[in-house]
């Protein structure tokens, strides 16, 4: 009789643990060359962020930085780690991600994905020391909502904030 009473309690405990785990934060260190993936929930019922990166030789002097303006090296990592692509999928469906949302985020170190209200928040840590940054992209199941970038040394003072409009409502 005691075993029958414990079984529903055990099942409820397991279900609660699984639900809590599905809504927890998911993090990963960014690979120097190749693909890094962070998934929160499952592929069909959650969010997945995939970033592709590669290492390249960083400019050796400040004179060379002027010639390579399109290279988003922070100068805090040698060799430089460039971001080739960043893709976001919610419930198995890719969402539109403007290139400007990640193009200048070089030298990525880690990704962290978490649920925020009805949407998600992707936190990207990059750079090192005085050139470190923290970028946050908020998105929902259809689009990226905004991006905030702050210095890594003081993330309470954003250096830029970008809002992305809803193309279905734009006239």
Q: How far apart lie the N and C ends?
A: 67 Å
Low-confidence region ranges: 9-22
Backbone CA Rg: 20 Å
Shape from CA axes?
globular
- Largest sheet, if any? 6 strands, antiparallel
Number of H- or I-type helical stretches:
2
Strand line-up of the largest beta sheet: 1-6-7-8-9-10
Beta-strand percentage? 35-45%
Q: Would you list the SSEs in sequence order as H and E?
A: HEEEHEEEEEEE
Structural class call reads: alpha+beta
Features:
single chain; 171 residues; alpha+beta; 6-stranded antiparallel beta sheet; 4-stranded antiparallel beta sheet; 2 helices; 10 strands; 42% strand; globular
Could you explain the architecture of this structure?
The N and C termini lie far apart (67 Å). It contains two helices and ten strands. The chain has helices at residues 2-22, 62-67, and strands at 26-29, 34-41, 46-56, 80-90, 93-94, 108-116, 119-126, 133-139, 144-151, 160-163. The longest helix has 21 residues, at 2-22. Strands 1-6-7-8-9-10 form a six-stranded antiparallel beta sheet, with no helix packed on it. Strands 2-3-4-5 form a four-stranded antiparallel beta sheet, with no helix packed on it. It is α+β, with helices and mostly antiparallel strands and 171 residues long. The relative contact order is 0.14. Strand 9 (144-151) and strand 10 form a beta hairpin. 16% of the residues lie in helices and 42% in strands.
């Amino acid at each position: 009789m005691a075993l029958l009473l414990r079984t529903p309690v055990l099942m409820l405990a397991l279900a609660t643990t699984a639900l809590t785990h599905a809504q927890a934060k998911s993090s990963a260190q960014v690979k120097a060359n190749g693909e890094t993936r962070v998934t929160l929930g499952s592929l069909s019922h959650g969010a997945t962020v995939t970033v592709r990166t590669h290492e390249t030789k960083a400019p050796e002097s400040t004179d060379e930085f002027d010639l390579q303006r399109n290279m988003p090296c922070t100068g805090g990592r040698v060799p430089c780690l460039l971001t080739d692509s960043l893709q976001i999928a919610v419930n198995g469906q890719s969402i539109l991600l403007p290139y400007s949302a990640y193009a200048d985020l070089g030298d990525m170190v880690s990704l962290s994905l978490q649920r925020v209200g009805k949407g998600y928040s992707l936190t990207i840590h990059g750079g090192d020391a005085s050139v470190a940054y923290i970028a946050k992209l908020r998105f929902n199941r259809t689009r990226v909502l905004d991006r905030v970038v702050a210095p890594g040394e003081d993330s309470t003072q954003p250096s830029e904030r970008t809002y992305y409009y809803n193309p279905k409502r734009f006239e």
